[in-house]
Structures are given as C-alpha cells and as structure tokens.
Amino acid sequence: MGYKRIRVNKNEIISESTYNVAYSNLSGKYALxxxxxxxxxxxxxxxxxxxxxxxxxxxNHDTRxxxxxxxxVEVKTLIILFDPGFVHDFEAFNLGKEGLRLVESIHSVxxxxxxxxxxxxxxIESGMSDxxxxxxxxxxxxxxxxxxxxxxxxxxxxxxxxxxxxxxTEILKRLSIARDFMISNYSKPICLEEIAKIACLxxxxxxxxxxxxxxxxxxxxxxxxxxxxxxxxxxNTDYPVNEIVDIVGFECPSSFIxxxxxxxxxxxxxxx
Length: 272
Description:
Arc Repressor Mutant, subunit A, DNA-binding, Jelly Rolls, 3 domains, DNA-binding transcription factor activity, alpha+beta
C-alpha cells in the first residue's frame, strides 16, 4: 500500500495503491481520476459508476462525488486535482474561451495521454518535486484530455442528426450516461429497456441515436467491454477461462471463445 501527494501551486497530484478506502463529499476542483489496476466505485451526484483498469473520468469543479475501493487485490490510481483558475487559464490560452461545462463520462487511457499519465505517476512515485516540470506535465495532461474530449464528445455530438445544438448536447449527455452504465455493470445481465430507462430515452430512440454517435449498437459496445475485461483478466490473473467467462458476463464459453478469436485474432488460451 502507498499514498503520495504533491502540490503544484494550487493543483494536487495523488498517487495511491490500496485495498480499502473511502472518500465522501468531494468537490471544489476539476478532478481527473485514473485507474491503472483494480476497480473504483463512484457516486457522482445521483449516478453510480465504476472505473475499470485503463479508464478515467474528468469531473467539473462544482460536481459533488464520493469514491470507494473494496478489493482483495491492490488497486492503483492517479488523481489530479486541478485548481479552477489553472483550468480557466489553460482554456483561455489554448481554446480562446473559458468556463466550459464538461460532459462527465468514462474514457479509455490511450496514446500520448497514457504516456504522460504514466510519466507523471512515475515522477510522483520517485519523489521528484520539480515544479516547472510537473506544471508542464499538468498542461500536457489537459491537452491530451482536450483531444480525447474533442473526439469522444464534441465530434460525436456533431454526428447526431438533430438541427438544434442544445438537443444534440442533451442527447449526447444521455447516451454517455447509458454508455457509463454499461461499462460499470458489464458483468451483470443488462437489457435494452434498463439501459434506455437509465438514459431517459425510449428503446428505439436509444438504438437510433447510439448508432449515430458511436457507430455501433449498445449490445456491440457491451460485448467489446466484456471482451476487453476478459483480456485484462487473462493477462493479469490465474483465473481459468471458464471462470473468466462467468466473471465478465458471458453465458456460453464457446461463444466467448469465438468472439474473442474474431476480435483479437487469437484464442483466449493462446493469448494467455
């Protein structure tokens, strides 16, 4: 177990490895939460979500939330608490505007963004306190997040076939809630009616708009999440394949093996 916290002006960077912890009634800063291993449960205002390995969420500074970890294996996380003034200065300099209201949704940690977060985590673990370098990495993290946000939120919002911009924003927000619900509950039996209810959409409206925004159906997305979690378990645990099938929510081992092979061009056994 370990906990390290470094301040960079009014910003804070926290690296934590733990099994059991809970924090409640948090707010006041823009919060980037990254999970490298294990799972972390959140209550974000009225929403329950779970961050899986290799995922993150960026929360607005006035969002109230709680987080908890209850795990038999060590959970490793990185949290960056950005001072609102730092974020607003970044927006004004890089985007020409400030005070944007972010759609809060789960994203994958990939590419340069993943590299910068890993480097930042390594510096924190080593005890490095070069304020200029750390500030540069905070800027890089915001730049990386802005690129992801542009692709995952702004561009997807534009792909929705509505004339009114406010309607596009609202529908994308509801679709993000549906997507986060599937990620957070991937191991459970989930039906379309339940997903649509969570998103406050009809089933037909959910299917139509989800395909417009994400270029796949909710079922296809849920299958992808389950396969990626199976891949993680195959690589990082000793669970038998049949047990992994149950853990990630598949009912039939043979269909799981077929889907895994079609997605990754290798069988689960050979991948392991």
